[in-house]
């Protein structure tokens, strides 16, 4: 994973909130509050994992730009269009 300066700042901000929450979750797990501890642990992990792997701004912007551009300006192979129209052979219905 190649992180830039802003990515490192975002990761540090996420960890600043996720570490105390994870610590509290572990304390609750050890105290016997299984549901609360497990739920808070899932939230703490999601606070770090979601922005790093699923909410990648570059990928989101590339997908948005690709969706907004006309097909001719998207690039790639002209024959490899996912939005290309498919011809349907419509035969005349036969009468019984």
UniProtKB/TrEMBL annotation:
Keywords: Membrane, Transmembrane, Transmembrane helix. InterPro entries: DUF7533 (IPR055955). Residues 78-96 have a biased composition (Acidic residues). Residues 72-96 are annotated as: Disordered. The chain crosses the membrane at residues 34-55. This is Uncharacterized protein. It comes from Halorubrum alkaliphilum.
